[in-house]
Amino acid sequence: MNLLLNRIRQPSHGYSGKAQDAHEKRKFPRFAVEKKVICFRYGRKMTMRTVNISLGGLKLQANFDLWVGESMDFAILTNGTRIQCKGRVLAIEDFKNKVHARLRFAHTSDLDFRKLSEYMDTLSREKAMLVQKGIIGGLFILSAYIAYLIIRTYFFR
Question: Exposure winner among 37, 85, 99, 124, fewest CB in 10 A?
Answer without folding.
Answer: 124
